[in-house]
Amino acid sequence: MQKISVLGTGMVGKAIASKLIQLGYQVMMGSRTNNNEKALAWVAENGNLASTGTFADAAAFGELVFNCTKGEITLEVFKQAGTENFKGKTILDISNALDFSKGMPPTLNPEYCNTNSLGEAIQQLLPEAHVVKSLNIVTADVMVNANKSGGDVTMFVSGNNAEAKTQAVTILNQFGWTDIIDLGDISSARGTEMMLPVWLRVYGAFKSPYFGFKIVRPS
Predict the structure, then answer these.
(1) What is the CATH class of 3-206?
(2) Are 76 and 16 contacting, i.e. CB atoms less than 8 angstroms apart?
(3) % pLDDT > 70, the chain
């Protein structure tokens, strides 16, 4: 049985971790401390397959790691977790480098925009890991259940390692994603991360996060 780590205890981390438990994976939720109240409550709700620990505990535990942390602290989290704990592992990065300093809607952090991305920054920090960017263009409930978007929507993957992307696609399929496009190496994460301003404006127009993007092409 595959062991998966989820870094982050927020709405996204909880949605991902709970879905993975439903799929039969052993899951450890990582946070700054091993007695995080949100993480302990999640364990209590999810039974024997669920556990919690520090970021370092979780990084060492998982064969595959989900990054569900806020973009502004992501690199700090990976450093706190111990970069050596990610060697050879697939990291499914679903975070976005959003800047809330000027209120809503947030903007993209210019450090990770246009000529760079958060996905690339993680890969640079962890050269012996295999970072795959995906799922960052939809809300948490849609991430783990593509049908909640209301249709057959498209998901993207970006990453340097083909085997890691295959691992990611396997999970995406289990989350209900069937139309998956491989955009290429991790630099292509720039494109999907820059979709967030569009997503935020559509969210504002719909007053609902339950939608996705669809790439239409000749059959």
Answers:
(1) alpha beta
(2) no
(3) 100
Cβ pair 105, 67 in contact under 8 A: no
- Residue 4's beta-bridge partner residues? 27, 64
CA distances 48 to 15, 38, 171, Å, are 17, 17, 21
Q: For 35, which DSSP code?
A: T
Residue 116 CB: number of other CB atoms within 10 A? Answer: 18
Question: Per the structure block, which two tokens stand in for 146?
Answer: 């593509």
Of 71, 96, 75, the C-alpha closest to 86 is 75
- Eight-class DSSP state of 112: G
pLDDT the model gives residue 104 = 79
Token representation of residue 77: 């989290």
To the nearest whole number, what is the mean pLDDT of the chain? 95
DSSP state of 170: H
Q: Is the pLDDT of residue 1 over 80?
A: no
Count of C-beta atoms within a 10 Å radius of residue 178: 11
Q: Are strands 107-108 and 154-159 parallel, antiparallel or unpaired?
A: unpaired
Neighbours of 147 (CB within 10 A): 12
Q: 154-198: per-residue pLDDT in tens?
A: 999 999 999 999 999 999 999 999 999 999 999 999 999 999 999
